[in-house]
Amino acid sequence: MDIVELADRLWRGEESTSEHHPVRYTPGLAEITDGVAFCPTFANCTAFTTEDGLLMVDTGSSVTAALGHQELRRWTAQRLNTAVFSHGHIDHVFGVGVFEEEARAEGWTLPHVVAHEDLPKRFDRYVLTAGYNQVVNRRQFGFKDLVWPVEYRYPDETYVHEHTMNVGTLEVHLAHEKGETDDATVTWVPSRRVLCTGDLFIWATPNGGNPQKVQRYPREWAQALRRMDQLNAEYLLPGHGMPVIGAERVHQALSETAEYLESIVDQTLALMNQGARLSDVLSEVTPPSHLADRPFLQPVYDEPEFIVRNLWRLYGGWWDGNPATLKPANDRRVASEIAELAGGSARLAERAEALADEGSPESLRLSGHLIEMAWLSAPDDPGIQLARQRVLSARAQAATSTMARGIFDWAARESVGEQP
Fold this sequence. Notes:
- By secondary structure, the protein is α/β, with parallel strands linked by helices.
- It has helices at 3-12, 65-75, 96-106, 119-128, 130-141, 218-229, 247-273, 278-284, 304-316, 323-326, 331-342, 345-358, 361-377, 382-398, 402-415; strands spanning 30-33, 36-39, 45-50, 53-57, 80-84, 112-116, 157-159, 162-167, 170-177, 184-189, 194-198, 235-238, 244-245.
- It has a seven-stranded mixed beta sheet, covered by helices on one side. A six-stranded mixed beta sheet has the order 8-9-10-11-12-13.
- Helix 7 runs antiparallel to helix 8, helix 11 crosses helix 12 and helix 13 (361-377) packs antiparallel against helix 14 (382-398).
- The longest helix has 27 residues, at 247-273.
- The radius of gyration is 23 Å and the shape is globular.
């Protein structure tokens, strides 16, 4: 299906983001407007033609870089002049090397890379935590063979708050924002009315609460979306998912995503200010009901309750308000005590499977607690291993988001000795 046609069908609800997931490779390239190409290669790439070569916003991952380069070369033979990194996630910043190899072969000037000043610090942190990032990304996405990189293409130029530059005669405005990351860059090209948002818009519930990743900034994110809305863009080209075309649609996408985040932030802070525990906050905060059917706000990647957890971490620290968790006993010791009180680990596992069979969201949550206690108290029991696999597989099947599904799938495989 044509990319622009697919974007329109998704907006109208004729196609689903569950089927056309925003964090998935989609082959092809679309010329969105004159001299602007959009390539949805897992993490999207956008290219602008100028009199002095291409401007690109993001360049893809190491896996998709060559594919993206091939798509662009079917569209134009222009050299890559400048690349802007919208942020430092590895699916967005590993395509420059393909263009550098091409430049050397052709005798061209090497591409110039621009990013926010915090992006190199992210790369430094990625080197420091390479093992951890490899584990959590294998778990999150199910990429068993993923090897986390330790070498990066650092930017040639960084900026602090705002930066205006020219590539040929094309004027380009860069602005720093905080949202999914602290190093985000928004790219605005006024002459073509094109806004490149990076991962500040991804055709899904904003990724403001990833359970395994560093701090996100939902309040600042909403403010960034409001500022982008004021630009009156005609074309919104996101970090993931399909383009949004037409000023009215762009306004709706930006303003309603901001409203969605603002509501979660306001509800969470109100409860925190009343002294509520985290468990109660998680139970009470809900996204705005009138936005529940928006195709660009579905919880297919992240989930609202994970955003609440990230807000708690941002504003309240790590303690959840439960005295038992301030200085807790070891999980295995607690599990063994509960199993003994229940009449054995097998009793816990049996009840967990019964709850999972009921299938309701609350029953599945309870089943998760019980099966984990059963397994922690008797990890070598084959029957309990299989029960844990079944319960966690049921939880994975019921999950809507990539985040939850990845973790549950990983734990289900772990139960029976598979190496995730």
